[in-house]
Amino acid sequence: MASQTSLALDNQLCFSLYRAQRLVTRTYHQLLQELHLTYPQYLVMLALWEEGGELGMKELATRLELDSGTLTPLIKRLIALNLLQKERSAEDERRTILRLTEAGHSLHHRAEQVPEQLHALCTGEGVNLPVLKSELDSLARRLSS
Amino acid sequence: MASQTSLALDNQLCFSLYRAQRLVTRTYHQLLQELHLTYPQYLVMLALWEEGGELGMKELATRLELDSGTLTPLIKRLIALNLLQKERSAEDERRTILRLTEAGHSLHHRAEQVPEQLHALCTGEGVNLPVLKSELDSLARRLSS
DNA sequence: CTTATATAGATTGTACACAATTTAATAGCG
DNA sequence: CGCTATTAAATTGTGTACAATCTATATAAG
Predict the structure, then answer these.
(1) Minimal Cα distance from A2: which residue of B?
(2) What residue stretches are annotated with the HTH marR-type domain (chains A, B) (predicted)?
(3) Which nucleotides of chain D does any protein CB come within 7 A of?
(4) Contacts of A140 in chain B (CB under 8 A)
């Protein structure tokens, strides 16, 4: 049946993305275990390290394309871990500024080896990471518009 | 700083996968809205449609690479939607068999247009879906071993 | 100045993911 | 046969995602 084939092929393509993402997240989970971070928490820390330790909640949400329903509790956990603190903007009382603590800054050092470890785990026969990234970004561009 | 660059590149590559997966899931969510299915629920229905309406819980878990902690509540919701039913295997009382209801079978028709709709939304400049799938599968193979 | 609108976050509710544990049933071994 | 190990699901607990709503603050229009 044509429909059967179509649904099966579709399954293959989109399931590939779904599965790969879960596998990468699981791989990160292992690497981040000793830092006591989840993968989304690691993404937040990356953004803060790149910004020198200070970033608005709004800017973070834009950067990660996540909303407050996801970020608010996630940030709460990072605060509970003593990695950052939250304060109100003086100019605009609606806005929240995130700032790394000393512990948050120093975690940067311990995270330095994570990228190369992950890269090593992902590299292998048939895997072309730049091509993969390029395709994923093109797809994201397509679906965002 | 070298570490800064490394962390930033890492972010780019893996964030691309993370973002693309969320965008595709959101796109499915729109297409599946009138079927009252989520994307993971749709994957379960696909597996059942392909198997002629009958599939063991264990086989489903293996196929989707999901554990019972994810599948058990998901299946409960599909049962609540009257799309399938659960029964124990006669030969092995530990095993559970999932079976499509009449409503579950007939939903197949209404789902037939989903793949081509998604394909159309994903197709565009710079997007090579076969290449993308091949890369994702190679990566999955690498991370599974 | 006051009201209407817009914006930033927080909150609420639903639905995954997944590690870890528990329960029930089967298989295998001495 | 009886006991141990294994296996299949369910359960429990934590942590995202995200839609929808709510609250507080700021901005704009009249």
Answers:
(1) B112
(2) 10-145
(3) 7-13, 15-20, 24-27
(4) 16, 19-20, 23
3-state secondary structure chain B: CHHHHHHHHHHHHHHHHHHHHHHHHHHHHHHHHHHCCCHHHHHHHHHHHHCCCEEEHHHHHHHHCCCHHHHHHHHHHHHHCCCEEEEECCCCCCCEEEEECHHHHHHHHHHCCHHHHHHHHHCCCCCCHHHHHHHHHHHHHHHHC
Q: Flag the least confident range among A49-58, A122-131, B43-52, B69-78.
A: A122-131
Mean pLDDT of the residues in chain A: 93
A6-10, A118-122, A130-134, B115-119: which has the minimum mean pLDDT?
A: A6-10
Average pLDDT over residues B68-76: 98
Closest residue in B to A137 (Cα–Cα): B16
- A110 lies within 8 A of chain B by CB: no
Residue among A108, A112, A143 whose CB faces B23 most closely? A143
- Is the pLDDT at A129 greater than 60? The verdict is yes
Domains of chain A and CATH, by start: 36-107 (1.10.10.10)
**Confidence band, pLDDT 50/70/90 cuts, at residue B2:** very low
